[in-house]
Write a structure and sequence with these properties.
Distance between the termini: 45 Å
Helix content: under 10%
Number of domains: 1
Number of strands: 9
CATH class: Mainly Beta
Structural class: mainly beta
Length: 149
C-alpha cells in the first residue's frame, strides 16, 4: 500500500511564479485556469504553489513527488525539442518539529516551477502524485486571444 493512499493531501494553486519564505507561500499571478496567448509561439510560465499536508505518522518517510502536465485526456505532454514528458520529480522527507503535538498534521509549503513552455491551444491538467497516487489535480485551458468560440 502506498503512503499517499493513507492520507497525504495537497492544496494546489496554479500561478505564474511563487516562492517559499519563512514557511509561507508568496504567489505571483495565482489562481488562474486560462492561459491566453498572443500566438502559438508564445511560451507560458507555470508554477504550482502547494500546501502539502502530511499526517503525523508519515513523518520521516521518503515521499516521491511528481508534478506533471498532461492533456485533458491524461496523455503525456512532450515539449517540442525534447523527448521527456513535461514533469518535475523529487523526493521529500518531512520531519516533526520538536514542540508539535502528537497526531498533528504537518503542513509543508512547496513551489514546483516549470521552465517556460509552449503549449498548443487546448485543455490540460496539472497533477501532483505522491508515491504514484494522485493527491491534487487542476485543469486549465490554453487559448489564443484572437480565437473565436
Amino acid at each position: 500500500m502506498s503512503v499517499a493512499g493513507q492520507g497525504v493531501r495537497a492544496n494546489m494553486l496554479l500561478c505564474d511564479a511563487a516562492q517559499v519564505v519563512g514557511e509561507k507561500l508568496y504567489i505571483l499571478g495565482g489562481g488562474w485556469a486560462y492561459a491566453w496567448l498572443q500566438n502559438t509561439e508564445a511560451p507560458i510560465s507555470v508554477a504550482a504553489a502547494i500546501d502539502l499536508v502530511v499526517p503525523w505518522d508519515f513523518a520521516n518517510r521518503n515521499l516521491k513527488l511528481v508534478l506533471r502536465i498532461v492533456t485533458e485526456d491524461f496523455e503525456a505532454v512532450v515539449p517540442e525539442g525534447t523527448e521527456d514528458p513535461l514533469q518535475q520529480e523529487g523526493n521529500l522527507v518531512v520531519g516533526r518539529a520538536p514542540m508539535l503535538r502528537p497526531g498533528t498534521d504537518i503542513h509543508v509549503p512547496i513551489v514546483i516551477p516549470f521552465a517556460p513552455v509552449r503549449l498548443e491551444p487546448g485543455g490540460y491538467v496539472c497533477e501532483l502524485l505522491v508515491d504514484s497516487d494522485s493527491v491534487a489535480r487542476l485543469g486549465f485551458q490554453v487559448a489564443l486571444l484572437n480565437a473565436q468560440p
